[in-house]
Specification:
Layout lengths: L3 E4 L2 E4 H24 L4 H18 L9 H21 L8 H8 L3 H16 L3 H12 L4 H8 L3 H18 L14 H5 L3
Antiparallel strand pairs: 1-2
Length: 194
């Protein structure tokens, strides 16, 4: 009598039947073991289990009734260790799109130029009082008190004008939220405020 049995899918050899039995009996426990070895990486664990079962099918006699679990676990562990060692000796793998990320995140003269143009346009939209207060405090480096003496207004008014000017600049440049976390709906109201 030969080792072939007729089934619903056609002829199934004894080797194929033994492989299916091996998979049904060992794959679950082997997979759980490999997932632990790989710190929860399920996708790599599936690959290791598949490679382990494939090596078993190629090199072991599945029909002799011998216990294969220790052999399977040892091969799976060796595959994981080999992969780990190979990654340590190879240069780090690079994503093909990393150059695009670097390009988009790196700052260059073009970014600076565009930012300065946006700032210049937003600065023009401020009221004269806001422009003066902002210019004297940020660009000239004067204190609130010094700016107040220069402009002939109290230091508290200078502070208020600088606050509202910065908020209006943020809105004009598309940042959208004031430093206090308040969302301002109409930037035009703040551009002309005194």
């Amino acid at each position: 009598m030969s080792g072939t049995v007729m089934g619903s899918l056609g002829a199934v050899s004894a080797g194929e039947r033994a492989m299916r039995t091996l998979h049904d009996e060992q794959a679950g426990a082997l997979y759980a073991y490999v997932v632990r070895l790989l710190n929860g990486d399920r996708y790599k664990a599936e690959d290791v289990v598949q490679e382990t079962l494939l090596r078993c099918w190629r090199t072991q006699d599945l029909t002799d009734g011998r216990q294969l679990r220790p052999w399977l676990f040892r091969v799976a562990r060796n595959l994981v260790v080999d992969e780990f060692r190979m990654r340590k000796t190879r240069p780090q793998e690079v994503n093909g799109n990393i150059w695009l990320d670097d390009l988009l995140t790196s700052s260059d003269d073009v970014d600076w130029l565009l930012s300065s143009l946006l700032l210049k346009e937003a600065f023009k939209k401020l009221s004269l009082n806001h422009r003066e207060a902002l210019y004297e405090t940020y660009f000239s480096g004067r204190s609130m008190r010094e700016t107040g003496l220069l402009l002939g207004i109290p230091a508290g008014t200078v502070k208020s004008r600088v606050h509202h000017a910065l908020r209006a600049l943020r809105l004009a440049m598309g940042v959208g939220e004031s430093p206090g976390g308040q969302v301002v709906k109409k930037p035009e109201e703040h551009l002309s405020a005194a």
